[in-house]
Amino acid sequence: DTAVSQTPKYLVTQMGNDKSIKCEQNLGHDTMYWYKQDSKKFLKIMFSYNNKELIINETVPNRFSPKSPDKAHLNLHINSLELGDSAVYFCASSQDPSRRSPLHFGNGTRLTVT
Amino acid sequence: AQSVTQLDSQVPVFEEAPVELRCNYSSSVSVYLFWYVQYPNQGLQLLLKYLSGSTLVESINGFEAEFNKSQTSFHLRKPSVHISDTAEYFCAVSDRYMSTGGFKTIFGAGTRLFVKA
Question: Residues of chain A whose pLDDT is less than 70?
Answer without folding.
Answer: 1-2
